[in-house]
Write a structure and sequence with these properties.
Chains A, B: Its EC number is 4.2.1.118. Chains A, B: Belongs to the bacterial two-domain DSD family. Chains A, B: Pathway: Aromatic compound metabolism; 3,4-dihydroxybenzoate biosynthesis. Chains A, B: Its cofactor is a divalent metal cation. Two copies of one chain form a homodimer. The first copy, chain A, is α/β, with parallel strands linked by helices. Helices cover 33% and strands 25% of the residues of chain A. In chain A, the strands form three sheets. In chain A, strands 17, 18, 19, 20, 21, 22, 23, 24 and 25 form a nine-stranded mixed β-sheet that branches. An eight-stranded parallel beta barrel of chain A has the order 1-2-3-4-5-6-7-8, surrounded by six helices. The termini of chain A are far apart.
């Protein structure tokens, strides 16, 4: 399927936007009039630039508030429109968008509106131009695509058809299945946008909070299915008004946009049983193969892992890389990075077919990772997550053969530790939605409900993306814009957190200090057995309970940009101790600032 | 009146918040339980710290979802509450906030809820504690303060009263005048918050978008009047959940908060005819006395002013400061700043009584400006605006005597120029609301409707604050978080913009280039006389029209962080050419990047 994007989705000037769209692989663009007016290049230059870049100008958006008006005003509107049709000839585009009148319509009579649409279409026909009429969700008299379709039928001109926009239809809760009854040759254009579930007036929601497909709450796969079953064969075009994308790097946003369309086309094709637009099948992860911590000097991490009860499982035969294991959890320490603080740098996932997973990811457009491989080393395919984390795939469910590259391990784990419960990644505020799309589209995970945690330097937004069986869970955190970067962490699930913490303390481990006030409240909230409460307090462990079970957990100090968490899930507790997260954020800040008393 | 603030309004840890509240002049605080739980200091330490700082702990907020529940759950709730009452004794506070049940209430019967409130009050009485019951706007059964008042009357306990919160009452549109019929001794506490007009679900609106009084759309002056007429004499306390204030510097936010309360108390006292809490009378500005541009090297600004037609009116007798004038507009160029780029640094306003204006500003808490004065120099009182601009007052309406300090002017203006139409200030996103409060509270201006301008690097939010007669207008712009700082500008109103621009061009002036595409669109939009359109295009002037008149304007290039605008208002045009602002922002970016073709 051809892909297109409205220039209003992107930051910068028009020529920058066009270059970025072409570089990201779009076939065409919709040009918003405001972008052309602010450009110093003439329409002829823009046309020529698009031709050189291989971009079609699929649609131009200069008209508004045309139909449903008094005769005098309509004459004036026709004069304005004719000037725009002449401009479109200079631009070399033949399709114009007409949104339903939101401001100046005063005539509620459909026959008047249809007659005016017809007259406009006749004028457009003199210039060889087609008109795509779209019902805006807040249109004065026309706000439903079914009303727009009726007007188009009433006007009955060959060059007058519909533009469908998923936002305007789904935001109002209009049933999209009736799209299938529209004549295919009257579906002139399709605009796609997702959006978060917000109880906000539809105009503000539309103008500021749209998202790329796969990042919001709309069922775009189902929506696109209806449009394709109706016989639409034009481009899939994105029209996403979003305050963030207006600010972020134009090239990156264009790539991000292109990935969302490829994901959507693949999902819709899979749902509809079509072969067009299909990628290699996604590979939902079966488990975490390894987590890699990288940095110039990881001696403090070695010490921490040893005290926690991990076993040193050996050194890599040719690189400054070490392996620690415990139960099914493997942590790789990589000291190839020069001058960087310790951080979670890579993640290995086990899938049924690693090559297919990589091919799927490349098909969507995730950037591949290059890593130098020595002779005989296992080569795992990998891509970069939006936050720069490298994600590797290995054939599973058993752990992969790269372990043979490590030798000389001396100890064995104490048997108390378990498996990777979840890995936490963080992203700057402008990359959050992209990270969610990556989790869903590239990694095959599903988003749980998002939450907000009040930290001492602002709200931290969080969403957990998980595989269907919970074997892989990635917690994505969004730091407040003005706050320093958050550390990332890795949570190890154990059978007995108290035993693990006790043993670790005996080996000299110090956990992140937790305020006494927290334990006083814990006792009040949960009517805990006092001896158990005292045990938690003595070990610095935290506790939560929900309807299905309970949760015991504790945090290590932060080393550079990484810390570990020990978690125990009792019965069917499904959360992550979110009520304890503010305590952790505050304690980490105290530790980072070395605040004692003020 | 005593002032108080909820610790949840501020960023940082609890002890930092307490220090900041004391430094800003608050008399007391409401402590949010989450802040205490995350603190390493014991309740006794917090009590002692507050005593040392001179802060009372006016209220503690640990209870939720207590009343309207099954008997079994209520017993559990009482147990939880008792632990909190014990904690409050350690903290040394005797008033607890109880919000209406939002999550666990299942019993709609008012007599049950009232009986449970009564039982809770009896338990509290054993600890000497009073309960302030508050209707949350999204409470399950109690969401209106009048319902809460009925329950309090039904329960009829001496230590059970009401907490009123302006947000919960005004956001739901409940009539606040009925507050006056509540018994004064039952008004235990008052929480104040403003909020912007948003059509958003009330929970999100409340949790993320509250503002300090004077910054939003609520009539807090009227609201407070009702509460004071009811006989309330407790503290005025702020409870403002706002994503931005959670992130910004705690000391600055506390000062900002304190200023908003002083402003509100003054306004409410003035409206009610009370003398308590009154400041010196505000002095609405009569005109702009001068605008000062400061920087290390202002030669390019001298040249620009000369070409525009300003007259060089002399040098200061003792400082590297020059004066340019034209009509009633005076621009001071100040080269005392070392190492800084040219920028608008100060603004002089003419008022009836400059000393009263300064006293009013100091009463609100605006930080005073210190400036070295030589013998015989005029000393003007001044304060800093939140963005660092210095604002001076001089007795008007005629211009002030400081002009005598300048001598040696050589030229006279060409008579084409006029007066200062508006001065544009910019603020980083976190200071925007504070800037609006400064304009209203300190300068005596009123906010017009705010707007959003799409620029190439994101949306620019803008609000114009003006004096009643429009003689002083400050346009405040908010740059997108990720974008570079915006330049500030100064607009000079003239009678004939075409003549001014023509004369300036003859003197070698180059205006900011405007794209041809803009002029093509102008012709289509307004059916302009072609000769007039060509004249605008030749001079680089822009044009707008509304129902009341028209607007001709043009921009100089940006020098450092400042540019000038020439504006002509035809008939009763009241705007600022907002539709042209995207064109300007794009052209300025092209000029700044020296982009030619890409």
């Amino acid at each position: 399927m051809r892909t297109s994007i409205a220039t209003v989705c992107l930051s910068g000037g028009l020529t920058e936007k066009l270059h970025a769209c072409a570089a990201a692989g779009f076939d065409g663009v919709e040009i918003m009039e405001a972008d052309l007016l602010a450009a110093f290049e003439s329409p002829e230059e823009i046309q020529a630039l698009c031709r050189r870049l291989g971009l079609s100008i699929d649609m131009y958006q200069p008209l508004r508030d045309i139909e449903g008006v008094s005769t005098g005003l309509f004459e004036e509107n026709l004069r304005r429109a004719e000037a725009k049709f002449e401009l479109m000839e200079r631009l070399g585009t033949r399709l114009v968008l007409l949104c339903s009148n939101v401001a100046t319509a005063t005539v509620a009579d459909e026959t008047v509106a249809a007659a005016q649409l017809g007259a406009l279409a006749d004028l457009a026909a003199e210039h060889g131009i087609r008109i795509a009429y779209e019902a805006l969700a807040w249109g004065r008299y026309v706000s439903d695509y079914r009303d727009a379709w009726r007007l188009v039928q009433l006007a009955d001109r060959p060059n007058l058809g519909l533009c469908l926009d998923s936002f305007h239809i789904l935001s109002r809760g209009h049933d999209p299945s009736e799209i299938e009854s529209i004549d295919a040759e009257k579906l002139f254009f399709l605009q796609l946008a997702d959006a978060p579930a917000l109880d906000l007036d539809v105009l503000s929601w539309s103008r500021h909070h749209r998202l790329f497909p796969g990042e919001g709450a709309f069922d775009l796969v189902g929506f696109l299915g209806h449009v394709l079953r109706a016989g639409y064969d034009g481009p899939l075009s994105l029209e996403v008004f979003n305050d963030t994308f207006r600010q972020t790097d134009v090239r990156r946003t264009a790539q991000h946009a292109q990935r969302s369309l490829r994901w959507l086309a693949d999902r819709a094709a899979a749902a509809g049983g079509w072969s067009t637009g299909r990628l290699a099948p996604a590979q939902p992860p079966l488990g975490v193969d390894f987590v890699e911590i990288a940095g110039q000097d990881l001696a403090a991490v070695d010490e921490m892992l040893d005290r926690l009860g991990f076993a040193f499982a050996g050194r890599h035969r040719s690189k400054p890389v070490r392996l620690w294991t415990a139960g099914d959890a493997s942590i790789i320490l990589n000291e190839q990075d020069r001058g960087l603080e310790p951080r979670i740098a890579a993640l290995g996932l086990l899938v049924a077919d690693a090559e297919a997973a990589a091919e799927h990811a490349r098909g969507i457009g995730a950037p591949p990772v290059f890593r130098r491989i020595s002779a005989g080393d296992q080569e795992l395919p990998a891509v970069f997550a939006p936050d720069g984390t490298e994600v590797y795939w290995a054939d599973g469910p058993a752990s992969a053969s790269w372990r043979a590259e490590f030798g000389g391990g001396l100890a064995s784990a104490d048997g108390l530790l378990g498996i990777v419960d979840h890995v936490n990644l963080t992203s700057p505020w402008q990359d959050f939605d992209e990270t969610v799309l990556f989790g869903a589209g590239v990694l095959g995970l599903e988003a749980e409900a998002s939450s907000e945690v009040p930290g001492p330097l602002g709200l931290v937004r969080s969403v957990v993306m998980r595989s269907a069986d919970g074997a892989v869970r990635l917690a994505m955190n969004l730091a407040p814009p003005a706050a320093p970067a958050l550390p990332r962490h890795l949570a190890i699930r154990v059978d007995d957190a108290v035993a693990v913490a006790s043993a670790a303390r005996q080996r000299g481990m110090e956990f992140l200090p937790v305020p006494d006030n927290y334990y006083d409240d814990l006792a009040a909230r949960f009517a805990l057995d006092p001896a158990f409460g005292a045990r938690l307090r003595g070990l610095g462990l935290l506790f939560d309970r929900d309807d299905a079970g309970a949760f015991i957990h504790g945090y290590t100090p932060t080393i550079g940009g990484v810390f570990l968490e020990i978690v125990q899930r009792i019965d069917d507790y499904r959360g992550y101790g979110a009520t304890d997260a503010p305590i952790r954020l505050a304690a980490q800040r105290v530790a980072a600032l070395q605040l004692t008393s003020w």
